[in-house]
Amino acid sequence: MNVVSLFSGCGGLDLGFKKAGYNIIWANDFDKYAVETYKRNLGEHIVLGDINEIDLNSIPNHNVLIGGFPCQPFSMMGEEKGFDDPRGTLFFRIVEIILNQIERGSKPEVVVLENVRTLKTHNNGRTFATIKHILEDKLNYKVYYNVLNSADFGVPQTRNRTYIVCFSDKNINFEFPKPIPLQSTLQDKLEHNVDEKYFLSEKILKTILSSGTKNYKAKSEIDLPIARPLTATMAKMHRACQDNYVTQNGRVRRLTPRECARLQGFPDDFEIPVSDTQAYKQFGNAVTVDVAYRIALNIKKAMNWE
Q: Most exposed among 82, 158, 160, 217, judged by the fewest C-beta atoms under 10 Å?
């Protein structure tokens, strides 16, 4: 099962598929720091560059195409511009890649796409309807979709994401993985002997724990058993109603990059060769490894690839 990965980031989706026995033969991302992390852990097969500028004929033939295409245009955290945002049009680049593969006689048998939960409701559902119409009617795939929460698949992080799984064979019957009992908490993922830089000063602690001002107020809680969704901007430290903070040795601190990696399902031997700022961004943007792994296993079962 040869896989091509788009918008790969530091490799969460790829690692899940690799763990399930797939062969990642080509990957791409435009972020040089994410590519650095990917190469260190997953191999040299990732290409740095804008996917819009890469020669489609240079992408090798593959059985499976995967990608967590940019979510900001469809996210509540952004301005929800959708296809009006240049990043939103990257879905159509995915379509071009598939059409190019078809022209070369090797239509991907399976396509797996990931995006934010609100993709399904963006623009009163019209954005998702367009995506589904293109996949089904233009590309002739059988399409399955669902919203999965990382906390339902072994990771103590509330992270709801839309997953779209497409099959070229209309006779395939696919089921999304069923939730499994959560056996760990955020506290189980914490490091010991953490560097002083991660602890909050008394001055900033007051801002972090405040409930907000004027039109924006939210309850700030720390030491949650299940983490809030990790974000790409964790390096900036938001209020505790948005980011995760924990108490250790009687003091409050932010999460370390390694703890963020654990909350996304990355193993401890996954190397982090970049700065904290870049690491927070990469793990905040990543697809949870455990969810990717479970989806990959169910695809193998549906395709009789076991």
A: 217
Rounded Cα distance between 30 and 48, Å, is 5
Is-contact 226 149, C-beta < 8 A?
no
24 forms beta bridges with: 3
- The domain that holds 100 is classified in CATH as 3.40.50.150
Q: What is the DSSP letter of 77?
A: T
* C-alpha to C-alpha distance for 110 and 165, rounded to whole angstroms: 7
User: Are 33 and 154 part of one and the same domain?
Assistant: yes
> What's the confidence (pLDDT) of residue 279?
98
Residue 158 shares a structural domain with residue 197: no
CA dihedral 222, 187, 231, 264 (to 10 degrees): -160
List the catalytic residue out of 10, 71, 166, 260: 71
Beta sheet of 46-48, edge-to-edge order = 46-48, 23-29, 2-6, 64-67, 110-116, 160-167, 142-149
- Residue 294 in tokens: 């479970």
Could you tell me if 92 and 215 lie in one domain?
no
Q: What is the pLDDT of residues 144-187, one digit of tens each?
A: 999 999 999 999 999 999 999 999 999 999 999 999 999 999 99
